[in-house]
Amino acid sequence: HVNSMHDYAFILYNGEGISMNKEEASKYFQMAADNGYVKSMVVYALMLLNGDGIQANKEKSIHYFKSAAEKNDTEAMYNYAWLMKSRGKNKESFKYFKMAADKGHIESIFNYAWMNQELFENSLEAAKYYKIAADKHHLDSIINYAIMNEKGEGIPININEAIKYYKLGANEGD
User: Fold this and answer.
1) From CA 123, how far away is CA 31, in angstroms rounded?
2) Cα–Cα distance between 161 and 40 in angstroms, integer?
3) What does the alpha-carbon distance between residue 28 and residue 6 come to, in Å, rounded to a whole number?
4) What is d(CA 79, CA 39) in angstroms, rounded to the nearest whole number?
5) What's the confidence (pLDDT) of residue 174?
6) 96 FRET partner, CA 20 to 30 A, in 77, 113, 152, 160?
């Protein structure tokens, strides 16, 4: 039942075989979301956040992202964390970036590391998570991890590690 709501909403949203109708799609995404369908929660939250086919409503968007995050959706965790960060709710943001980071979400890994380094002064934890993201070829993490190793920012100086990651960054760069 909720799968059908979501699938029909998706067809309406994209205009697959019928006329595109994002406003009508939003109604079906909301119905599926209100019945616990996580994919619909995320899509509907994005529509609300961006005013995509419907009136933008950041408060409702936050509600649906948090609901999906609590049901273990990584993308919802990340979006909810960003919205909390934009409101200065750093502890809440930090918590959800960590949750998504621990599920392997690359941008959340970077943001969790950055918050550890810049806001919570936990360089050891920052280095650990920068390395995780750097090893997945996240360029900003590569650079930040190399700098931390070169300068000994919260971790022992390790020139060989710094050189390894600077080289990796040089080969990854735009």
Assistant:
1) 44
2) 44
3) 6
4) 14
5) 59
6) 152
